[in-house]
Write a structure and sequence with these properties.
Radius of gyration of chain B: 13 Å
Oligomer: heterodimer
Number of strands of chain A: 10
Helix content of chain B: under 10%
Strand content of chain A: over 45%
Order of helices and strands of chain B: EEEEEEEEEEE
Strand order of the largest sheet of chain A: 2-10-9-4-5-6
Distance between the termini of chain B: 40 Å
Number of helices of chain B: 0
Order of helices and strands of chain A: EEEEEEEEEE
Helix content of chain A: under 10%
Largest sheet of chain A: 6 strands, mixed
Largest sheet of chain B: 7 strands, mixed
Number of helices of chain A: 0
Largest interface: A-B, 24 and 23 residues
Strand content of chain B: over 45%
Structural class of chain B: mainly beta
Shape of chain B: globular
Chain lengths: 107, 119
């Protein structure tokens, strides 16, 4: 399954709302889609799993939605620490469990 | 605290062999899957394969099958990723990550091991 993220770059300011899209080439089984945040020089960190479940410790300004082939990560009000690259990943098909190419959220 | 601690950065020559490690702590190692993920410079992550340390059941991405070997040692709570003959194109950061089950997300990540292959 190929995941296409858009936009590639999102230029916003602190306090803005961010809407990131992830489109799959085939339907993602059981909404098995995750979102990860990666800050420069750091490992990815799980943000959302099974399309809409926040990982432990993730603030409630992060929310995920979608099903089938279209998924969205929304950050309701950007904080300075939210500026990073976000990747979606599907794990519903037979392996390999692919990643999108990422969306960079920048100031 | 659940942690995955990876081995340090490596600089190797083409044709060299290499094994990098990922040591788990804070949970029962044998009951969670471990994945390996490659991230080439300036690129997104790529899923390489997974292993279940309890029985060493392993699945590889077709892109990496035959190029690397994934293994695990329950006695030391450590997973491994190894190459028998490195290429320059293997230059990347390699992450291990834990999965709570087979069709699951990666909930805990190691800090990454940078591998540089250059003549």
């Amino acid at each position: 399954i190929v995941l296409t993220q858009s936009p590639a770059t999102l230029s916003l300011s602190p306090g803005d709302r961010a809407t990131l899209s992830c489109r799959a080439s085939q339907s993602v089984t059981s909404r098995y889609l995750a979102w990860y945040q990666q800050r420069p020089g750091q490992a990815p960190r799980l943000v959302i799993y099974t399309a809409s479940n926040r990982a432990p410790g993730i603030p409630d300004r992060f929310s995920g939605s979608g099903s089938g082939t279209d998924f969205t990560l929304t950050i309701s009000r950007l904080e300075p620490e939210d500026f990073a690259v976000y990747y979606c990943q599907q794990y519903g098909s037979s392996p390999p469990w692919t990643f999108g190419q990422g969306t960079k959220v920048e100031v | 605290e659940v942690q995955l601690v990876q081995s340090g950065a490596e600089v190797k020559k083409p044709g060299d062999s290499l094994r990098i490690s990922c040591q788990a702590s804070g949970y029962t190692f044998s009951t969670y899957w471990i994945a390996w993920v490659r991230q080439m410079p300036g690129q997104g992550p790529e899923w390489m394969g997974i292993i279940y340390p309890g029985d060493s059941d392993t699945t590889y991405s077709p892109s990496f099958k035959g190029q690397v070997t994934i293994s695990a040692d329950e006695s030391t709570n450590t997973a491994y990723l190894q190459w028998s003959s490195l290429k320059a194109s293997d230059t990347a950061i390699y992450y291990c990550a834990r999965l709570p089950g087979y069709h699951y997300h990666m909930d805990v990540w190691g800090q990454g091991t940078k591998v540089t292959v250059s003549s």
